[in-house]
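new request in #modeling-help
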Amino acid sequence: MQHSIKDDYINSIKNYTNQFEDTNFRRIACNDFKNWPSPREETWRLSRLGSLSRKKIKPINPNLKKNNNNISNLIGSTIIQFIDGAYREDLSSKLPSGINLSVLSDSESLKYLQKIKKSNLSDHPSTNVSLSCTPSIIKLTVSKDIKVKNFLEIIYEGGEDSKSVHPVLYLELEENSSLYLIERFNHLTSLVMPLQLIELRNKASLNSIKIFNDNEKTYNLSANCVYLSKESYLNSFSLIKGGIFTRSETHAYLNGCNAKLNLNGVYISCNKQHHDLTTAIYHDVPDCTSKQIVRGVLGGKSTGVFQGKVRVAQDAQRTDGQQMSRAILLSDTASANAKPELEIYADDVICAHGATVGELDDDQLFYLNSRGVPMDKSREILIKAFLEDMINQSVDISLHDFVFKEAELALSSIITKEIL
Amino acid sequence: MSLLEIKNAHLKLDDKNILNGVSLSVNKGEVHAIMGPNGSGKSTLSYMLAGRDGYELEKGEILLDGISLSEMEADERARSGLFLAFQYPVELPGVGGMSFLREAVNSRRKFLGEEELDHLAFVKEARNEASKMYVKDEMLKRAVNVGFSGGEKKRFEILQMAMLKPTVSILDETDSGLDVDALKIVSDGVNAQRNSDNAIVVITHYQRLLDYIVPDFVHILSDGVIIKSGGPELALEVEKNGYSGLINAA
């Protein structure tokens, strides 16, 4: 049999996990990783991993002495630092009372694996590879009734050329607790495969912002599994701007009545970047709400993908599910794909979806021009407004400026290239 | 010399003749009304003047203060002093009213060789003008035209006119969608800006608006040409007999 690079990667993972017992979570996960997803698989058709599978990479051996890059943090935030996929207590802040950080034991890790395996992320490469290779699974728990005031900021950095990085997180918000979480992915590596399990107990509330800003050569295959209990609330916003290939895939299970989910995202893509927001929302019980707004701005030869599935089970009456995606192409060579999907088995629901891909609106441009604003400036104003409008709608007011500035940094380079 | 001179304007849209030789001279201090039935070319005329893409003249010429507009893009025409109040003002989600006004005013000031207004001075002036148009501060903080009522949109148009101080303003069916009270506010706003150095062209279906903005001249546009011109009494004639009598007579 021909020896391939893919086999090299699988073998290097196997060699590592072979030191553990058969029943160890790493061994189980490793056995489930057979190959990179093929483009014949429906959800990977628009985001192909061909060039990744031809790369010669190995899981990283975390360097626990490596320093962080001191990226500017939000004022007053509590920092949790990951480098090379490993949690670094020495570079992290002291956690406020009410938040507990722990490293999962082998038996807890096995339970973690079983929970993810119950979801539709069971075959995701990040599930199996990251559970095989992660330095450890880090669990963050917000205790019952605790409303954390300061932002919690998790910074993921590190990696090396030809190496893959595997941060794995477990976040649990106990009953009636709340948290503002900002996660920033700033790797300098060939591949990073972040895996997350988030559980929101009854009445828990999480405001989550993820900023994907990895190095220009990085592949980021982020996989997120979220369970929402009764009356819990998740307001999630992702900003994808970095990497050569970034795919954030989230599966959200609305398991308790009156749970509310906003799963929004923006991608800003240029050069040859490929950005993908893939989501699946499962309404399994009555009276839940899910809303999604996704926007993309693309220049150069970049490609953008939004795949959003909403499944409403037969019992999930009075579901309200809304989904809207819009992409603006600033160059003739950029392209965007949108694949909204509704699967509805209940009869009393409000569900709507819409997707548009196009250029800036002629009427809006003319309106600005007719007020004396030059064409290039008008385009710049409209592109910024396109994202600002969306950020204002989907991000907690205390974080508007921070998120918009992060978006603006990426936008200004596209605007310079495509407009000015 | 006329402030605005339209000479024998011809324009086609999708191979269909829309303007078939419109000529009009507008002098400083004058208000002209252009009336006409649906499909007569009124809105096309306003887009053509403002320089919208796709509305280029096939034949003819337009001069603003003696300078040809043909080669100018819409933004250049606006900075040169031409203003179009839209029949359907466009919503700009995410673009705040105040920053929009400031961008527009400073573009015009730069063109006129005037210094750009600093933030405080600008806000002060904008609030002052806004209060005259019954535009509340809160409206200036919102995105341009988003969620505005019909009346608010038109008031915001006239506020822009007041801030930009154009030499020629074209008001395209500014009365559409307005109730009587809103019509009065908007008309008062326009009248306050009439002076001996500027000119206003009012495009409308109905005579009603001309009770408030009293024109010096009235022109009837039909099938892309001006078939009759006269004083304010011509508008009353339209009101009484409709357009058909005039069109048939022409």
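bot summary: Chain A touches chain B at residues 362-364, 366-375, 377-378, 381-382, 384-390, 392 (CB under 8 Å).
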